[in-house]
Amino acid sequence: MTDLTSPPANEATLPPAGEATLDELREMLAPVIASNAAFDGWGEDALAMAAEGMGADVDVARLAFPGGAVDMIDAWFAHTDREMEARWPAERLATLKVRERIQMLVEARLEATAPDREALRRAVALLATRPGTATRLAWRAADRMWRLAGDTATDYNHYTKRAMLVAVYGSSVTVFLGDESEDFADTRGFLSRRIDDVMRFEKAKAAATKRATYRPSLSRFVGRLRYPAV
């Protein structure tokens, strides 16, 4: 999988916790809360411990997550997206084929959560009771990955690509949470096969669209009879 040893570039720009805005505090606390959530769950204890450990006022920290556990998970997933993008900036992705870009981005996102897999497990369980929020967060991640991969589609392909990636990512998370293989080899293999399936589907869809473009059209034929070219 990708190398996640270096910290995200944006971390160096954040101020001390006591001087941070609510948005900055939310960003700073998110990964620390996740580490605590692996043991304490996504709740008040994880938040208070993270705030105290960073020297932030606990009451102010609560204001940064008005939605409680769901907001904490949302912020952690956003942090994961930033890590993913920091490891795979546009210039690095540009050297890869589209299929490889998607695989590397999904792997980077999964591995960013690897130190806190139990927190991810708890987050998935909690979001299962909130399907609307779960769908929104999954779609946001898929959209981020496709945009990083260079996708500029604005027609129905924009939606089908993201819907398929949501399915691929979701099933890969399920495998990832139970993966005990070395370097998550089982997850990487599963992900690779699923992406291959998607690419085959995309090629078949493109071929079908091309055939439809040149297929004889009865309506066009009748129209030409009625309105012949001059």
What do you see in this structure?
The chain has 230 residues and is mainly alpha-helical. The protein has one domain: Tetracycline Repressor, domain 2. It contains 11 helices and no strands. It has helices at residues 22-40, 44-53, 58-64, 69-87, 90-93, 98-112, 117-127, 131-148, 156-177, 185-214, 218-226. Helix 1 crosses helix 3.
Question: Tags for this entry?
Answer:
Tetracycline Repressor, domain 2; 11 helices; 0% strand; disordered N terminus; mainly alpha
Q: Could you say what the CATH architecture is?
A: Orthogonal Bundle
Low-pLDDT residue intervals, each spanning 5 or more residues: 2-9
Distance between the termini: 63 Å
Radius of gyration: 22 Å
Let me know the CATH homologous superfamily.
Tetracycline Repressor, domain 2
Topology-level CATH name:
Tetracycline Repressor, domain 2
Total number of domains: 1
The percent range for strand residues is under 5%
Helices, by number, come to 11
- The global form is elongated
Q: Could you report the average pLDDT, rounded to the nearest whole number?
A: 87
Main structural class? mainly alpha
Helical residues, percent: over 70%
Please give the number of β-strands. Answer: 0
CATH class: Mainly Alpha
Sequence of secondary-structure elements: HHHHHHHHHHH
Query: Major sheet: size, sense and barrel closure?
Result: none
